[in-house]
Amino acid sequence: MPILDFDKFKEDFNLFNHKKRVFTQPFFGTIIIAAGLFILYKLNQYVDPWASWRQALGNATHFCEMNRFDQLIVQPSNTWSNLGYIIVGLIFLSIAKNDHKYEHRKQVNNVLAKFPGFTYLIGFSVLYLGLGSFLYHATLTYFFQKLDQTGMYFILVSFIAYVLFKLFPQIKFRGKIYVSNTFFMICAIVVQLLFFFFLWKLPINILFPALTISFFTVNFLLIAKMRNSVSMVSLMKASLVSILIAASVWILDITDKLCSPTSIFQGHALWHILGALSVFLGYLYYRSETFLTPEEKEVTETI
Description:
The protein is mainly alpha-helical. The chain has twelve helices and four strands. Helix content is about 65%, strand content about 5%.
């Protein structure tokens, strides 16, 4: 008996024309490429190409893991743990590609499957964060620190754009009504550019947690109020639990409460892995949503 019934999985998450390779190719492809990079890293471990680069600011050097400034990768565990984000981002892009090719997607009763542009947006944002954070912890340089921090905002902005589209699926302009998916995706890209060029210098340790808490709060309020949809709410709860555990581990790591500087097991690395898991679970929650017909809604309201 298979561990995962993929046909049931496809049905639960509206993956109508998808095959297992949508998930396996990004996973194994990333692992194979990472293995090659790891060999190159070990062959050049004691090369330091970052000495002339501007050093990262703030708490960049305060994580528990020992900083190896004389080596190619300054924080190895904190670097390689970002493979989780890269795999998740590539899976999302793979899903978006298949969604876009599905000729009957307009009849699918799930907003993400029907409008793959949002999965592309989320996927590119997650991949951007994974690559940015990988290079940030590998180098501890100012430029890649910016990619790491803006990537965190990019993911939140992408998900918020999708939620806003669900709330306001149509907009009226000059007397005509339009589907608002393109509008909200453009708005998301504009906000992401603002974060990249201007807003990324805001205090991230205050702004990012505040935005994250607000995001989950709004989602749970919507779940409580919306009676015209069915979804796996447990996935959103699991996503919240994952990010809360990740944040707790991040604090324990940065304050040296959970710390062994030379160990391969690092709290900040776990923050990356749990963060990628939280994003993946949150996406699956949205992917599980189906909207009730008026008849189905009437039945649920009488139960």
